[in-house]
Amino acid sequence: MDIRELIEPKVNPGIPQMSPGDTVKVSLRTSEMDKERLQHFEGMVIRVRGGVDGGSFTVRKVSYGVGVECTFPFQSATIQGVEVLRHGKVRRAKLYYMRQLTARQSRLKERREKVAEEVTKEGESKEEISPSS
Asked: Which distant-in-sequence residues (6+ apart) come within 8 Å of 25 by Cβ?
């Protein structure tokens, strides 16, 4: 008997498609006593794992000179949403080498195809505004 027959992974609709090297902002729902609030964790995705249980992704940031990593399951009910801020250009699936780099050295270049699409969209909107005025 396989576990996939017993449990079907439920995809969280608040998590978009992401890949290692992307800079993301994860919004977590935390409850303290009787209050509930959103807590944000912003950093770089260094690992995306798939699996029978739905998979997980690991986000790393440097806070006050100390590296902090959090692993979030894709099926987690505490994740309110994930926003992809930047798409980094990397050539590895697992970015564990970022742990030895300083915060300044660990900056990545942005992927070209995403930037080119955004520039053309902005250019079209500017052309539409200028003839009408």
From this structure: 40, 41, 42, 82, 83, 85
Identify which has the larger pLDDT, 109 or 3.
Answer: 109
Among 29-38, 61-70, 94-103, the range scoring the smallest mean pLDDT is 94-103
CATH of the domain at 78: 2.30.30
Residue 95 · residue 20 · CB < 8 Å: yes
Q: Domain range for residue 15? A: 3-132
Enter the pTM of the model: 0.73
Decide if 127 contacts 75 (C-beta within 8 A). Answer: no
Considering Cα of 69, then 15, then 24, then 77, what sign does the dihedral take? Answer: negative
What SS3 state is found at 110? Answer: strand
Report the alpha-carbon distance of residue 122 to residue 133 in Å, rounded: 17
Is the pLDDT at 47 greater than 90? The verdict is yes
